[in-house]
Amino acid sequence: MWGKLLGVCFGFMFGRWLGAIFGFWLGHMFDKSLKQDFDKVGGFQGFFKGDDLHQRQALFFSSCFAVMGHIAKSNGRVSETHIKAATLFMDEMGLHGEDRQEAQNAFRYGKGNDFELKGAVNDFKEVFSRRYDLLQLFLEIQIQMAFSDGHLAPQEVQLLQKVSQLLGISNTHFRFILKRYQAEFKFREQRAQQGDYQRQKGSQTAQQSESITRMQALAVLGLTEQATDKDVKRAYRKLMSQHHPDKLVSQGLPQHMMEVAKKKSQDIQAAYEFLKHPS
């Protein structure tokens, strides 16, 4: 109601009756959607985004690989593990030709001595400040790169924490995201070994393994063993909403990186299904 009324008033002020009609339509769209969802897609600017969406996607793409390169060189040199992780990441995204070259150039730029992390992240934050889910996914991707060898060096944690602060993410939430990704990494490994657990079913080893998997499944959702069924469902819905690929792409996630969001959604879904139907 208020959206339509204000839309008509402002529209008439700037465009007489034609503006009033257009303002009524915009106001209707505002009233029809939740204000929170409206803000997430960029408010009224979302209706005029045009090339702006492509610019945001390009910025996300280049910033992501540049910061990845910088973190990969946190101990003074880029290890073979990090290079393989970056290459695998590009493969998973299906990057070829010019797109792959751009990613490699950004990664190379990030590991250069003249790269300024603060300036790069601040520029990124300025564009995506109202899209918290994308800011969080950006940080999660950096954690994924740093954790590619199965552990985090002190220098990597320090850099990740700095990126988190520059993005406006609190230290408490950074620790939460970090812990949840580590659980996600381990849970993914355990899922790969699920066949072995099934063959060993009934043995003490199998029971212990399944118990660990349950704890990791809870941790993937950011929960502890004290979580109730209601807590599990609430956490699952929240995380699935945060990592919904289509929503993130509409906010500025590059199409190539849609696979990242899909993979995270699959891990969240798998953890939830395991907790609902433990084997």
Describe the protein's architecture and organization:
The protein is an all-alpha fold and 279 residues long. The protein folds into two domains: 2-48, no CATH class; 55-279, no CATH class. The protein has 14 helices and no strands. The longest helix has 31 residues, at 2-32. It is globular and about 50 Å long. The N and C termini lie far apart (51 Å). The chain crosses the membrane at residues 6-26. It is found in: Cell inner membrane. It is a single-pass type III membrane protein.
- Mean pLDDT reading: 79
Largest sheet: none
* Residues in β-strands, percent: under 5%
Number of helices: 14
Order of helices and strands: HHHHHHHHHHHHHH
Return residue spans where pLDDT drops below 50 for at least 5 consecutive residues. Answer: 34-50, 205-209
Estimate the helix proportion, in percent: over 70%
Please tell me what the overall shape is.
globular
Distance between the termini: 51 Å
User: Which structural class do the helices and strands define?
Assistant: mainly alpha
- Overall radius of gyration: 22 Å
Domain count: the total is: 2
The number of E-state strands comes to 0
Keywords:
single chain, 279 residues, cell membrane
What's the quick description here?
Helix content is 76%, strand content 0%.
Q: Topology, please?
A:
Elements: H1 2-32, H2 35-40, H3 51-72, H4 80-93, H5 97-110, H6 117-128, H7 132-146, H8 154-166, H9 171-192, H10 194-199, H11 204-220, H12 229-242, H13 245-251, H14 258-276
Helix pairs in contact: 3-5, 3-6, 3-7, 7-8, 9-11, 11-14, 12-14, 13-14
